Amino acid sequence: MKKDLSILLMALFALSLTAQNVRTVNLDGTPLADVLGDDLLNIDSIAVTGKMMKNDYKTLGKAITIGHLTGIDLRGCVSQGDTVFSILYTDENDRDYYPRKLKYFRFPSEIKYVVAKFRRSILHDFSLPSSLRKINSYCFAGATIVDDLYIQEGLESIETSAFICTQMPRNVYLPASLKSIGTEAFVQYEGQTTETNLWFRGENPPTVDSEEGSNNERLFNLDADTWTIYVPKGAKPKYESCAGFVGRKIVEYDPSIFVDGKMIRTINLADEGVHLYDAISSGEALVLDSISVTGGELDKNDFYFLVRCSEKGKLTGVDLSGATSQNNEIPDWAFRPSVINGAPQRANSKEDFFGHLRYVRLPHNLTRIGEQAFFMTGLRTIDIPKTVSVIGDRAFGDCSDLQEVRVFNSEPSTIAAAYAFDESVSKATLVVPVGAKSAYESDEAWKHFGSIIESSSVDGISNIVSGGDGDTEKSSIYTLDGRRIATGAGISGLPHGMYIVNGKKVVK
Prior knowledge:
It is built from nine helices and 40 strands. Mean pLDDT is 81; it is low at 1-19, 346-354 and 460-475. The protein has 508 residues and is α/β, with parallel strands linked by helices. It folds into four domains: 1-90 and 99-109, no CATH class; 126-253; 258-458, Leucine-rich repeat, LRR (right-handed beta-alpha superhelix), CATH 3.80.10; 461-508, no CATH class. The radius of gyration is 25 Å and the shape is globular.
């Protein structure tokens, strides 16, 4: 019951962002049409628990086609035959209507088969559960998948034309469990071709299955040069000689950069070149989620390179705590997305700024954070080391997404930061050392924060310890690039790796 309730709450939160009329339904054997009644054609989004039957999917199809339904969340339910059935709507003249208005669809967590076709749907934040074994023919034909598609381990086959004429996202990640792909699975029509990176996690290529009586073995457009096939190191010769991949652009990558579906690149500049752009190719820069620098010195060009990765690619997290920075500073305008060639550019509104940066860990030798260094970014959390003595004007100006700032200096008067923060942090929390709260509350530079709390955790990120005992089970846990992890099981419930617990690096 608690699990169902938590799923419903999560679904409500996600769906309420875009919907005006949200319904939550627990099916106990009563048909969905009877439960919704007259409200069927008025709902914008729905979250379902209990058990979905085949006819319930037809009800959803009707609500999409002649009603207002655009969002469906079935993660809290089970489905008849472990199958997602057709959500086509058939009218009284036996005409079929595809779910064109559908934008969000969350699969039941234990689903194995998908009969439904999402033709012409525009799907956001879309994922497939690990229980799924097969994507049927024409399942996503003609649909638009907006966000990167990560398919978990477990999927074994993609049938013929499964994604034919589909507007694909920038990145599609395919599991090592994938054994076969049907012909024309990813073919797009002329003028429709997307720029897509197809990431295979298996060292051996899947077989290409032709339809019976057909000699066609193509997977992609014959003339398409906008798709890049990424394969694990050492696997390129196997893919190049496999039917369906001959003549394709194939690039090898290091599989270790994948962590729970995210691409994280760890770089030691002392070993891999003078600058980040020496170590990271332009193609790789577009697809990395996080970058961790463990050694060497960063200069202003490295910071501007990170901004471009965030603007043009999907970089959200940066960990620079293992490196140093030139002149012991974060340069002026370092992470400001509108900077071009070291000079800030004008923008009419925040929406005109690009960049996905959310989490940053700063170099360990830092004494100064430059003017407008994070101005108007989507930064959410930041640690300010004890060594910092200067924070430039508007360094964190207009950072309305900022949730938490952790400062390690007990004396705010030793930090020149008079105009570093503004009213945009009125909903953020400032975490200070124990005994320093009153000093920060009375300091003009820090008055804009919504709340100031004391914590013994802001005593420096230093020692590396082994995780699994004591306070590591009860504390706030962060990834290396500053993402807070919500886990009731503490660090013992996380995969092996390195985390930040109580301000210290912890190896599990």
